[in-house]
Specification:
Length: 257
């Protein structure tokens, strides 16, 4: 598929998707989200890809939803357009996704970054949920994922009073994994993705699912989910290969089986 609002390329076992609406500060519209989900799904189905990176530019990751597209829509039009529901397509991706964020990640841009599994930020990254200034609230996970990441007090201030977090603050509050200089942030995200991409594919999938369940289930239910995933992996060839390789003091050769 030829994309108009994103760029998509392979880098070894890493799929790199770059948001590419520079004239609109990478604002998220329906067309971009459709292309993003298509690219993510394509990489997810590609056995040669083990992890995915979503990036913007050094100036802006994504400045939010495209308000010019959204401003005149009714509640029914928002519902039937499935604009917000498209974010669920990111959650459905089985392979690990890393957001490489520099500059502004605001509104839907912040929600997009938080929909990923990890975030690598440049020193110039800024995170915020300014929807209150538009007379609405975050609608694509901002009130939920943000609160789980930084806690109630900081999330309240960001959502109710348009507080933005610097990259340093985002690291301190647990929103991001790393903060690095601007000229290193994308390479850092790609290196992290590459290290992850060479690990056992089925174990990666079960590990990602299990960590996510920690936010969705009670402790008892989540522990049961983890235990079932752990037992399941003992039915795989990769488990046998991994443990045999450990005993034999050699590198494992994963098959994803």
């Amino acid at each position: 598929m030829t994309y108009k609002t994103i760029l998509s390329e392979k880098k070894d076992r890493v799929g790199l998707i770059t948001l590419n609406r520079p004239d609109a500060m990478n604002a998220l519209n329906g067309a971009l989200l459709i292309e993003l989900i298509d690219a993510l799904s394509t990489f997810d189905a590609d056995e040669e890809i083990g992890a995915i990176v979503i990036a913007g530019s050094e100036r802006v990751f994504a400045a939010g939803a495209d308000i010019s597209e959204m401003s005149k829509m009714s509640a029914v039009e928002m519902l039937t357009s499935s604009f917000v529901e498209m974010f669920d397509g990111i959650r459905d991706i089985k392979k690990p996704i890393i957001a490489a964020v520099s500059g502004y990640a605001l509104g839907g841009g912040c929600e997009l970054a938080m929909s990923c599994d990890m975030i690598v930020a440049s020193e110039k990254a800024k995170f915020g949920q300014p929807e209150i200034n538009l007379g609405v609230i975050p609608g694509a996970g901002g009130t939920q994922r943000l609160t789980r990441a930084v806690g109630k007090a900081i999330a309240m201030e960001m959502v109710l009073n348009n507080r933005t977090l610097s990259a340093k603050e985002a690291l301190e509050f647990g929103l991001v994994n790393y903060v690095v200089p601007v000229d290193e942030y994308l390479e850092k995200a790609l290196k992290l993705a590459k290290r992850i991409s060479v690990r056992a594919p089925l174990a990666l999938r079960q590990a990602k699912d299990s960590v996510n369940k920690a936010y969705e289930l009670s402790l008892t239910e989540a522990l049961e989910f983890e235990r079932r995933a752990f037992y399941f992996l003992f039915t795989t060839e990769d488990q046998k290969e991994g443990m045999t390789a450990f005993v034999e003091k050699r590198s494992a050769e994963w098959q994803g089986k």
